[in-house]
User: Fold these one by one.
Assistant:
Number 1:
Amino acid sequence: MSHYRFLIVLLILVWGLTGCAPAAVAPTSAVVATQPPADAELPSAVSQTPADEVQGKLVIYSGRSEALIQPVLDAFKAKYPQIEILLKAGSNSELANALLEEAANPVADVFITTELFTVQSLATQDVFQSYLPADADQLPAEFIGQDLTWIGLTRRARVIMYNSELVSAQEAPKSIFELTDTKWKGQIAAAGTTNGSMQAQIAAMRQLLGEEATEEWLKGLLSNEVTFFGGHTDVRKAVGSGEFKIGLVNHYYFYLQQAEGSPVGVVFPDQGEGEIGLITNATAAGIVKGAPNLAAAQAFMDFLISPEGQKLFAELNYEYPLRAGVPLRQGVQPLEGFRLAAVDVVKAALDFEATFDLMERVGLP
Amino acid sequence: MQRILTYRFVATPSRKSPASHWLAIAAGLTALFVAIPLVYIFLRAAGAEAAAWQRLLQARIWQLLGNTLLLVFAVTCGALATGISMAWLTERTDLPGRNILRAMLALPLAIPAYIGGIVHLALLRPRGGLIPQALEGIFGQPVLTPSPLGFWGSAFILTLFTYPYVYLLSGAAFRSLHASLEEAARSLGRTPWQTFWQVTLPALRPGIMAGALLVALDILAEYGTVALLRYETFSSAIFVQLAGRYDRSAASVLSAVLVGLAIFILWAELRAQGQRRFTQIESNWRPARRIALGKWRWLAFLLVAGVVSASLLVPLGVLVGWSIQAFVDAQVLEAVFRTGSRGFSSFVWNSLWTSSLAAFLAVVLSLPVALFSVRYPSRASRFIARFCQVGYALPGVVIALSLVLLVNRALPFLYATPLVVVLAYVLRHMPQAVRSSESALNQLSPSLEEAARTLGRTPLQTLLQVTLPLILPGLLAGGALVFLTSLKELPATLLLRPPGFDTLAVRVWFWAAEGFYVQAAPAALILVLAAALPLAFLLRREQIFTDESANEHS
């Protein structure tokens, strides 16, 4: 009979487990609930600690892919040899959720994203602490978050790249709305829903055009058999090799592919009268509230917008540095020549959830 | 990789002893530990808002279900056809070079399918691959080559790297098959073809079914390969939900459906296994005669060589070639050793220590379960042993999801430590340890333990001084299997690793995703070699390599 007694014990234990589990699970919505940012503490002024005294581990969560951030980390490490840098690269939303999850027990010091909506939305959820980096006055005011919660780093534009052996400059689509034209059926590559820049483009379009028109555009892409990759590196390589004729990417992927010697061309789309204009966004960084290594985090933020850091982004990755006076890499078309779509970051961040619902509803992979 | 012939000693019915109670508690706690992710996922799925279910039910679940089942079916069929035919050719015919081929056919198990996928994709990618580009160079215009992408590509690649399960298990079954079975059928007037279908195949069924089960569950859990080759299944959709949106409700709902599917497959196999039994009398055993292939010999050789090339030689050759390229190019070499937060040696070390610790823990935890079920057979002990098989039905993404949610709330001190990764490996690979420990104990006569008890040893002393030393080789085999599979694990490691913590698998995945194949190659090669060592140990134990002359005289 002993095993019956045992079974009962087992049952009770299982019962206990199932009883406890729901209690242990705090509803995520409670964490997500918007809280007004705490009264901005006085931003720690310019960090004065000499380079070789800043030390310890610096944990960086980066929505920028490892390949695009590692050279910058290496340059920082060369300046601060005492700091051990620990990088976790992933998608913006994955890392943002990890930050919310860890709020009580922070692991990361600095968070870097590839668009502004995620940092803005985290700022309203009190994830960041205020900090005014050394040369923040060199950045345009609209790229500094409220209460100094985040700072912008570089700008990037959403462009159409094409394989110039397969598509002539005349033929290439001049507007993102031409991507739903059936003559490109099955010949377009883009990044999928895990990609922050794609998410941000859809969020921007929702604001510019409204929910319905954006939904129609997404459905158009799907019925046009657009292939969605995990990231843009795959997209640019596929267009470069001619596997696809057209790719929807950030501008620097075109330059990176061109630098590899592929026959590719680029269109900065939607410049015509009455069109929405070029959609741009910016990378940004913020110091996590309760960051275990504040001194290193501040030194890193200073470095990101220093002339040296900004030049790395411009030179290695063809991005548009936000700091005034840092030159573009040779050959990169300056943004000044284009009509840019005007997107309200604060509003887009508030609507970001609805953008995800939209992607889910249309079934974007 | 179960021994097909096990010598089963039946334990004398146990009297109530305090030792059995302690054992029961330890085994029960292990079962509870294993149950946590499962129970948690179902609770989360049940607790998901109706809206989440509705959104998913509208279209996605059905499409994912169709995609997943289609792939599972295709790969299982492919693996069965390949595995059985390879086993038959190497075990039962006079195939040239069969001794060396027999070992080579098993080795693809050391290559994670996504690494095989990376190599085949780099070679065959439409227009961009090395082969299409070479052909374009020769003919001056694009030549249509088979694409490794999508459904057919995924099915092909996954078949190449999972058929060894079927091959090993049916090979063992072929070897243990008594010659007289087929001889009787032949003398009763069956043609060789009829004999194969009506006698040989049914007798092999337990081995074949076990192999097919492993393949099917592997495909359900597969993430890396399908993500790479752009075919959406449940596992990859869950990963996207977690990485893209971090929508836990949707991920939980999808996970619950996926686990349900896996449990259904496990149950179906159990049912099918239970229906028929084949008993062989152990005495007078002699192997069946080899069939002379005659003029088909070389065609058969080409077939086997083709399979070995696609699944072993080509991937290894390409990885070696790329690695050499990496070592020649100073810039790439620097990147290999510097990228990542801590450098190359740390990925190797992380891979090795997490997998070893997981292997050790899984074997230790499997012991009470195995002791309880083998030495004190009862409904409760059988239930616990069965229940510990549940890890087979929990894909890496699902374990990651439940641990992400649980650890931060229940065990915050473990959060963002590599131990969570180890925990995931233990949960996922526990069944292999339990099965190995059980089969080791089954082969040990309880009379030895009883003698020790009679001579005044306490149960604990008996366990430590008699049982453990005798079953150690069996435990090591279980540990080697857990080590091997943990080393290859990708999705749970990707989702659970703390900042700056990279393993070989993660590194290869990141580099290859960015298209840095040459840079990824040395890490991939080391991963394959590290996996080949425990595999070689296991194959030797299963006597895959034994000389056939020794086999024929035994």
Note: Chain B is about 75% helix and 0% strand.
Number 2:
Amino acid sequence: MTNAAVRTLPSLDLVSDRAQARVRARYRAETRFKFYGLFAIGLTGLFILVVLTDIVRKGLPAFTQHQFVLSVRLDPAEIDPNNTKDPAAIRQGDFQALVRNALRSIFPDVKDRIGRRQLDNLLSSGAADRLRADVVADPGLIGQTVKVPVLISERADLYYKNFSTRVLRQAGAGTATPSGTSGEIEIALSSDNFAAVRRTRAELTLTENDPSRLIAINGGLVKLTQIGDTKTAGTVLLPLQSDATAAPGAWQVVTFQTPAANRRVNDREVAWFERLRELGHVESKFNWAFFTSGDSREPELAGIRGALVGSAITLFVTLIICLPLGVAAAIYLEEFAPKNRLTEIIEVNINNLAAVPSIVFGLLGLAVFLNFMGLPRSAPLVGGLVLALLVLPTIIIASRAALKAVPPSIKEAALGVGASHQQAIFHHVLPLAMPGIMTGTIIGMAHALGETAPLLLIGMVAFIVEVPTGISDAATVLPVQIYLWSDLPEISFQAKTAAAIMVLLLFLFVMNGAAIAVRKMFERRW
Amino acid sequence: MRNLTLASALALVAAGTLAAGQASARDQIRVVGSSTVYPFTTTVAEQLGKTGGIKTPVVESTGTGGGMKLFCAGVGVNHPDATNASRRMKKGEFEMCQKNGVKDIVEINIGFDGLTVAQSKQGTPIKLTLAQLLLAVAKEVPGPGGKLIPNPNRNWSDIDKSLPNIKIEVLGPPPTSGTRDSFHELLLEKGAEQIPALVSLKKSDPKAFDRVWKTLREDGAYVEAGENDNVIVAKLEANRNAFGVFGFSFLEENSNKLRGVPLDGVVPEFDQITSGKYPGARRMYVYIKKQHVGVVPGIDKFAAEYVSAKALGEDGYLAKKGLVTLPKKELDEVRKSTTGLTPMTAGPLS
């Protein structure tokens, strides 16, 4: 010390050019560092934005569902022939057939077997579920004709969500004269409407690799197979009311832009879809079923409810096990345990445990909870126990850090006025450490919410239709549902996957929000 | 805090008793096994739950091998009632089952899964022989003198002048996938057997021969695109010069965007697969524990539903989900043995 005091300081150079250059270099370095930081934040923000936009863009279609509004006659012969009004008997009734007949009555010309089957396939296999529930609740409806919304198949829904083809309409030039009203007909045109399509060829045969060209005339629709300059030939898809000559502008040239070979719905189905839309039978509704039903193999019936409830129950089990245990362990280790070799080893191992791959906990769960204790497979109870093991180290570490951060003066003051060690901790230290403990817990729970690997081994990666109602019912969780849906071939499940991710993120936000609220409540400054 | 600890302890005890009560009786069928068969078994399970008057069976996706292990572990309500398999049960697995008391197993051959090579509809149409496919993706190929050399083929035209002059890029499943096993066994092994130099190698050094069709190149020409076949489909849409390897149902579902590549002159189509002409087809199975019939309610119904006309028939709901169903004669036999719950024997297994 004395040495330094007597040593003469080197003269401080602050004004020379070199010194100023040094100062400028330091400022430049600082500016550069700020720029790096901004760049890093900007890049992260950009990635988050890209991911979120992508998910939202893909997931939004899953939140709407198209349905047909049909007038269904509730024929007593089909539902309740003996007039019993017994709900059990009514439930057995063939409601699907009633809905099918209602749709068929809109297209009375469809008489062939293939056509009828195609028409039936526009409806979901769960089309009659809603109607059945309505009638069971109110048997007085039997015998009446009711207007009900019915669920449509995935393909039909995708069509109305514009996944299949664009339909262009153009008023026809000149007059058009059909040679008949059904089957294969010819349509004579007074002017050349298809010069652009034919280019130099005199006559053109359309195949399924070309965009479909159709003529809407006299209330019907004709798919063209041959086009010449004035003479065209084709197949009637929707019957014409008459074979009268249509005046210029009274008929339309319709184009389905995507060739039939490149879409999953054929021309006849597109014609039906468009007709149903014209007649006002199609409506788009918010897809509440997505939030109220369990899993299904039919995309239009599948919902997130089962996984959402499964996640909630599993996390509840996790929380009530690992929060008290974790906090108790942290308090003991931090405040009561003697500092010796043994506690040191325990501490190191808790830290190690936090870094063990999650699949290992699944193996442990399989061996202990399922094989040894005989708990049921796929149950949220076991899932919750396994996840509790997984997050316990995180909570212990976070809680210890929080306890350590409370100023020792608070505990000492409590001890000074005569509180016991335990009273000092439970009455004074713990409440002040609570915000930190909450933060640690929520990080742990968020971790648990996103886990799938350990759940595979205890049977929670499964197809479960029924929404779980208790801790020992078979259940699955949100991330597992996302994984399972993402692997299915049906196109609509891609949208469901993205929608499920949105639900998972929302769940996470709500959970974090709750934790922040709790933290605010406990927070105290000193 | 003490109250919370007490509450959770109580909850644990309650849970334990509840669970113990549950374990002694089970009223829900449990199925494990292959993720390839999962889409079909789940459909059957859902239909059964709707119409069969029992709880909807729980279907887990554990992979064929994992499923067999669980299935063969023993008899009793703690063990699954059925398992899905994307290949036939192996003799070793059958013996393991027998050893653990799983004596009577009913085998249902539910149909075929076609393994397809596909490309974007925007790409140049291409036809491949299995030998050409092997020469495109194998790590080592026979060189001029018949000796094995690292695969020198960069473009398809390097393999055969008739193929287009574009870079070889094949997207396929990773080694953990059951589909990858079939890729090797159904397509590449047969491809290797078409090449004379390799046939003679098989005689002189069977191990080296196996290495050829079992090892894929790692220089970027074969890309492991993940377990999820939808990812491969999405990548093919983006890259019209790439080829993808995945199940037939994915090709069918995306037929508006993708085209199946004919292998050995056979187009991957429904009829070609059932007739056995298409090389990339494999049979899929469901195994049922007969000893659980009567113990867990509905197993006989489950078996009957699986082979019923409305499920496995030509227009059944499984066909709509992309299953390639059995030819009529075979289906009748399967139906007979399944509804009669005839146990299988070790005889035909390998």
Note: The CA atoms of residues 131 and 191 of chain B lie 4 Å apart.
